[in-house]
Amino acid sequence: MTKNDSKSVIPLESNPAIFTDLAYNLGLTPVLEFHDVYSLTDQDLLGFLPSPIYAVILLFPLSNNYENYRKEQDTCNGKYNNELNSQVKWFKQTIGNGCGLYALLHILTNLPKDLIVSNSKLANLLENIGSGMSVDETSSIIEALESDIKLDENFGERGQTEAPAASESVDLHFITFIKGKDNHLYELDGRRNGPIDLGESVDESNIIKDPLLTEKIQFYIDNADEANRNNFAIMAIGPSTD
Predict the structure, then answer these.
(1) For this structure, is 184 an active site residue?
(2) Could you name the active-site residues (predicted)?
(3) 7-16, 64-73, 110-119, range with greatest mean pLDDT
(4) Rounded to whole angstroms, how far apart are CA atoms 241 and 53?
């Protein structure tokens, strides 16, 4: 949570069932669902995932090293005002502890539109975030969407572990990796200054096999302090298995 956050929510648990149910509530068609990812390099474990994988969510521990890195990078990149909106949708996080919702929206708003239910909350959101809209304007729309979802009431306490209070500062953070319409791999994090272009994807069929993805997630693991080295979780969205 930052001083600019107008509201805080109970942080979501890294749980595929919770993220899938929230995605369906927003308007994702049931042909997709979230899956746990246990390795990005073990081919046997990767073989259990359905194909194709459209996007990946990483939960990682925040640290002083990371915060210094984030601030330095964002200072270099300057102010962002939705210049890449036609290639990839990105939202500034203004809801404290709401990174799980933003990570999910960064996936859902960048999926092919035939995977979105007509007249759903998500379809309406996509209609409302026009190309000429500012970052602050889209932030207000996301805040209104969260109020409509009632995130705390319907999803905040559904995890397998005891949920912290909405006002509690949490040192774990969700971000998304997804391909834009330009076939570049993007890192989408509402706490950054805008979408982060990681370069042209080298695997057009399945993001989970892209070495750019593995390299960036390994960067986060390598820069975690020893106490948090194992506090990572990865989920992927792909075809439903039922």
Answers:
(1) no
(2) 99 (nucleophile), 173 (proton donor)
(3) 110-119
(4) 13
Distance CA 111, CA 27 (A): 12
- The catalytically annotated residue of 76, 99, 106, 184 is 99
- Residue 198 DSSP label: E
Q: Determine which one of 35, 76, 106, 173 is catalytic.
A: 173
- Digit-coded pLDDT (tens) for 124-155: 999 988 767 899 999 999 999 988 887 777 67
Distances (CA, A) of 102 to 28, 58, 72, 86: 15, 12, 22, 18
Angle (deg, nearest 10), helices 99-108 and 16-26: 60
Q: What's residue 78's pLDDT?
A: 79
Strand order in the sheet with 196-200: 32-37, 233-239, 55-61, 172-179, 184-188, 196-200
Contact at 8 Å (CB) between 69 and 190?
A: no
34's tokens: 């979230």
Domains and CATH numbers, the chain: 16-239 (3.40.532.10)
pTM for the model stands at: 0.92
